[in-house]
């Protein structure tokens, strides 16, 4: 059976004429079906015989897709007009969707499948149909630029179909989680399977000789010359200090070094399914920084890129974001040494000042807790080498949240007469 056909098993009482009247777009389309399947009589069909019917002949009803979530500047076009995005709105077949830098969107399909499109990407919904004859779905997306993640619900019918087309390759899935990426520089298309199995072929159609199967943990790349090759994906990277509260102005994640990795990508989402992605960053090193976000509980998904250009398997972590910055300084004035500090964060902030003589691991010579002001002055400090630091206890506006504590690094102060 070809890529553009479905299989139908003849049942008792079926004739090609009746099937055409009920399920084909034209009453005379049965002639095409008869010719393709080399059937002598359109009214005398053997029960149990498998016949191939082209998709473009089948009646269908429009299937449904909704805008599950979006962030930033996205565009939706349909039949030459621009549609204002609204969460939950229906997205019809023929729509063109694009994301700008720092923008993201997610679609929910009728069968439960989810489509996520990160920043700087563009796709077209070329098929969004429910086939009446087989009670099956026929989905097809075309990625023109950027990336697409497809988390496809398991199909329960043999004629269910989900395709992703790109300028140089086409992929087909049956219940899986995989990524499609068009490299903007080389034009190479990467397909990477996280769960399940994906079939990939160079060009526009599948063939027995040209398609390759890529199970979970592997990928396939196709270039403009029609070459297609497979590779194993890097295993998930390990995040250092995964339980660390992200309290600084910038989010910062450190990945355990690994020689095979050339870069790392991180996605930040409000949900564990990464439907509502709010930020992403690609870095060449093991440290990844992103702009600050609102306080709350979030999820991070991290992948590593191999030297062959494939993006590896993901590792997901949950983390807490609570802005709580603190920095200090010391100056000498007419009244002695004045220590001052400042920081940002929501909720009540209470400070603790400590001063150590000679050794920062010794017992503090000054230990003032419960300070509400952001300064303290110490007079008559004897000559010596001192180490000092300031801590903050920050109480969340939410009474059910635990207080957060942090200290500045030790600062050195030399007092000499």
The number of helical runs is 2
Radius of gyration: 30 Å
CATH topology of the largest domain: Jelly Rolls
Instruction: Quote the average pLDDT.
Output: 93
User: Could you name the CATH class of the largest domain?
Assistant: Mainly Beta
Strand content: over 45%
What is the CATH architecture assignment of the largest domain?
Sandwich
Q: What this model shows, in words?
A:
The chain has helices at 16-23, 30-37; strands at 5-9, 50-54, 60-62, 65-71, 74-78, 81-83, 96-99, 104-109, 114-117, 121-131, 136-152, 161-165, 169-173, 176-182, 189-195, 197-202, 212-215, 218-222, 228-232, 239-240, 251-255, 263-269, 277-283, 287-290, 296-305, 315-321, 327-333, 336-342, 348-357, 366-371, 375-378, 384-395, 404-407, 411-415. It folds into 4 domains: 5-57, LysM domain (Membrane-bound Lytic Murein Transglycosylase D, Chain A, Roll); 61-232, Jelly Rolls, CATH 2.60.120.1440; 239-321, Immunoglobulin-like (Sandwich); 327-415, Immunoglobulin-like (Sandwich). The protein is mainly β and 417 residues long.
Annotate the secondary structure layout.
Blueprint: E1 5-9, H1 16-23, H2 30-37, E2 50-54, E3 60-62, E4 65-71, E5 74-78, E6 81-83, E7 96-99, E8 104-109, E9 114-117, E10 121-131, E11 136-152, E12 161-165, E13 169-173, E14 176-182, E15 189-195, E16 197-202, E17 212-215, E18 218-222, E19 228-232, E20 239-240, E21 251-255, E22 263-269, E23 277-283, E24 287-290, E25 296-305, E26 315-321, E27 327-333, E28 336-342, E29 348-357, E30 366-371, E31 375-378, E32 384-395, E33 404-407, E34 411-415
Parallel strand pairs: 11-12
Antiparallel strand pairs: 1-2, 3-10, 4-8, 5-6, 5-7, 7-10, 8-9, 9-11, 10-11, 11-14, 12-13, 13-16, 14-15, 15-18, 16-17, 18-19, 20-21, 21-24, 22-23, 22-25, 25-26, 27-28, 28-31, 29-30, 29-32, 32-33, 32-34
Helix pairs in contact: 1-2
């Amino acid at each position: 059976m070809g890529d553009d056909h479905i299989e139908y098993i003849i049942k008792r009482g079926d004739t090609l004429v009746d099937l055409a009247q009920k399920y084909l777009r034209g009453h005379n389309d049965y002639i095409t079906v008869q010719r393709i399947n080399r059937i002598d009589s359109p009214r005398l069909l053997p029960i149990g015989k498998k016949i191939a019917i082209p998709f473009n002949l089948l009646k269908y009803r429009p299937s449904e897709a909704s805008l599950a979530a979006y962030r930033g500047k996205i565009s939706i076009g349909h039949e030459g007009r621009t549609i204002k995005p609204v969460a939950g709105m229906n997205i019809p077949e023929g729509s063109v969707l694009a994301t700008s830098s720092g923008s993201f969107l997610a679609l929910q399909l009728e069968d439960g499948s989810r489509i996520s499109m990160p920043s700087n990407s563009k796709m077209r919904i070329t098929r969004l149909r429910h086939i009446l004859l087989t009670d099956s779905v026929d989905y097809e997306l075309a990625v023109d630029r950027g990336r697409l993640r497809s988390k496809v619900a398991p199909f329960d019918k043999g004629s269910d179909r989900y395709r992703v087309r790109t300028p140089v390759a086409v992929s087909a899935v049956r219940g899986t989680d995989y990524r499609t990426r068009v490299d903007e520089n080389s034009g190479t298309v990467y397909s990477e399977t996280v769960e399940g199995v994906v079939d990939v072929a160079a060009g526009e159609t599948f063939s027995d000789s040209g398609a390759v199967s890529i199970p979970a943990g592997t990928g396939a790349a196709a270039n403009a010359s029609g070459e297609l090759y497979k590779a194993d994906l890097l295993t998930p990277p390990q995040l250092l200090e995964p339980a660390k509260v992200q309290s600084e102005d910038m989010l910062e994640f450190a990945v355990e070094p690994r020689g095979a990795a050339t870069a790392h990508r991180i996605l930040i989402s409000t949900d564990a399914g990464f439907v509502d992605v709010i930020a992403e960053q690609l870095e060449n090193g093991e440290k990844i920084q992103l702009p600050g976000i609102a306080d709350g509980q979030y999820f991070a998904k991290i992948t590593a890129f191999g030297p062959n250009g494939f993006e590896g398997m993901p590792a997901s972590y949950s983390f807490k974001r609570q802005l709580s910055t603190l920095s200090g300084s010391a100056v000498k004035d007419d009244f002695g040494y004045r220590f001052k500090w400042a920081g940002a964060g929501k909720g009540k902030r209470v400070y603790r000042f400590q001063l150590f003589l000679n050794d920062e691991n010794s017992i503090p010579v000054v230990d003032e807790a419960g300070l509400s002001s952001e300064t303290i002055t110490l007079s008559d400090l004897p000559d010596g080498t001192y180490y000092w630091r300031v801590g903050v206890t920050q109480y969340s506006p939410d009474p059910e949240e635990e207080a957060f504590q942090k200290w500045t690094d030790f600062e050195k102060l030399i007092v000499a007469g």
